[in-house]
């Protein structure tokens, strides 16, 4: 895998990782209500859940991609369509007023609940099923290894972003969420970045 693939894949998934969803809300709620350590336990659970997705993809997706270029193209456009949908949703949200308030609630078993949160998270499933295959090059061979490497990159960014959220909220959160202005800025920036990623992937053809 060359650096350009690593960079483009990272640029595509980082906005998705940063987009508020079940993973972030659960982790943030634990960091705010119980502390940084609880948030980090939830983060480990979330990453472990994505390890299961990674294993399933490595075992099955490689053979499918290698055997069916037509299916690969279909999956590629599903991924592009999904990114456009997410971008439009975020840009629409940026136009609406309203703060983001992190749910406050103590939950025991952050590790196991974080694991289940990511395992059942539709956004995570779409990353693995519709986006990750687009960065695999059949001509390089060993698509299983490529799938594992891309999965590792996604989980790395999940760990980095979610850990940063834990530290920030555990230290400064105090029950606060994102103000309306900051929430709009985050939504519009993430929406724009995801839309650009969709455009790159539409032009990017193996």
Automatic annotation (TrEMBL):
One GO molecular-function entry: amino acid transmembrane transporter activity
InterPro entries: LeuE-type
Pfam families xrefs: LysE
Keywords per UniProt: Cell membrane, Membrane, Transmembrane, Transmembrane helix
Coiled-coil zones: none
UniProt subcellular location: Cell membrane
UniProt protein name: Amino acid transporter
